[in-house]
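QUALITY CONTROL LOG
STEP: pairwise intake check
CHECKER ROLE: data steward
CRITERIA: each record must contain a sequence immediately followed by its structure tokens, with no blank fields

ENTRY 1 OF 2
RESULT FIELD BELOW
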Amino acid sequence: MRGRKALVRFGVAALAVGIVIALAGCSSGATTKGTTGGTAKKLKIALLLPETKTARYETQDRPLFEKKVKALDPNIEILYSNANQDAAQQQSQADAALTNGANVLVLDPVDSASAASIVAKAAAKKVPVISYDRLILKANVDYYVSFDNEKVGVLQGQALLDKLTADGKAGKAVVFINGSPTDNNATLFKKGAHSILDGKVTIGAEYDTPDWSPDQAQTEMDQAITKLGKDGFVGVLAANDGTGGGAIAAMKGAGIDPKTRPVTGQDAELAGIQRILLGDQYMTIYKAIKLEAEATAELAVALAQGKPVPSTMSLTKVNNGTKDVDSILLKPVAVTKDTIKSTVVADGFWKTSDILNTPELKAAGAAVGLQ
């Protein structure tokens, strides 16, 4: 009997110790997955972005992603790196994230092809990879979150064609300033734009812009002006606002009024929106980066926690040359002077006070009901 009582007392004591340990673990609030030597591991998500020349990555994607992750699980650690358009550096950053115990990689590749090796290394460690904004090609990517990127080019091409047609200039020469040849998105933008403009305009000159560099775009536009002459083209199909800004700078440097040569863009960068208001740039493409970043954060947190894809997410398939990747594709929107208020301002992407920061911009904003 005494032995049984002793056993009962031991069991109660052990249970009490177990409860204390469990409560101590709960009180830390750390989200964990698995153990190493009896110590719980903190969940980690790596966010690997490609460059800083496009303003959106540091001003929009990164802070929006990080904020959403912390809102969903404040104890998840975010391992952030930006490759500054260096594919080799991004490889090293990915290696470091995997060595540091990343549970998920969110990878926006510098080079859509060479990033396949990062996916292979992650797969060897059973770490899922979300291809963010740019599709990683010929790799066993787990998920892809982006926009309908061919549609981006279609919208750019259609906006430029409509403007040229309205001005009686359809059929004349246009300059193409495309994006980086290592970015699969740039290939899709170009494909979409050509699907609209081929046969409707003459391609006077066309360039692929390494690293999406605005400086390189300016040099390319200088070359186009030298080739075609100041009056030898009627518009510019620029793949984003940075390359559009470079093309506009080249035109101004050559004494050409950019208001007379419609220029497209993409990303709804602040400088691009301001140029549109002033008439120097004709249009841009607004991509609701907040939706993209937050959807990716929600998916990454679920994967890190070992949970299924949220039921609210609608998945489609995009083939990357190896598999049909489960994908979330958001809708791009064309923005001109008259729709700035109903798009980027209405969504809170930019505040009116950010845009109208000079007397000239305030006057231009007032003319389209933006005050």
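ENTRY 2 OF 2
RESULT FIELD BELOW
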Amino acid sequence: MILNHKVFGSSNHKIIILHGLLGSLDNWVTVAKNLANNGFEIILVDQRNHGKSFHADQFDYQTMCEDLKKFLDEKKIKKASLIGHSMGGKTIMNFTLNYPNYVNKVIVVDILPKAYNNDYEKIFSSFSKMDLNNLKSRKQIDEYFSRFFSDHTFVSFLSKNINRDSNGKFKIKFNLKSIKSNILKITSAITTDRVFNEDILFIKGEYSNYIDDQGLFEAKKLFPKLSLVTIENSSHWIHYENQKKFLIEILNYLRT
């Protein structure tokens, strides 16, 4: 099955953007429009078990890497630039290491190839306990998640995973069962003896703790030509919190 996607602009320089865990292509529409206005063709993709893409029991980085290769082959795209945020960043790191001939420019947003703590139980619990049948409005959804989380940006992010089905009833967009059962595969490190010997840009949020010195040291074993840019006044949601600076940095890199 082909991944759900949306295209913005038309150009020989195509850019694939992959969202993070529990996200969707909808999180990147504004960025896509801005990049398209600068002469690029942007293809936003919902990864498996997310957005409007298919649901499946199998959920790991090698599988998502193969999903991306199948997508590019289906669309007859021989070479593209890749941007990936968080989980999407790990997907494109895997893809870049396995299929470097498909890759033009690579931008990894606020994630490293290292292992991360599995701290998603509270999130999964909030979705599991939600009484979807009694929800009447999006305001109610925001209010519900606010009982679990204080960060308004994060509440808004989670709320976007609830939408209406063809009968007008609210439902969870992502595959909660598969993601929950495979979460340790998603938080694990990338382990490979492959090395990508071309330029690759990593972007860090100033207040984010996803990128640290030890993790960068290990990342350089896989990506020796890694360069790092820090975006001020942002945390993990860089493309939302400081989009202006984020766009400046990625355009500078894409045009080199």
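INTAKE CHECK: passed for both entries
DESCRIPTIVE NOTE, ENTRY 2: The mean pLDDT is 96.
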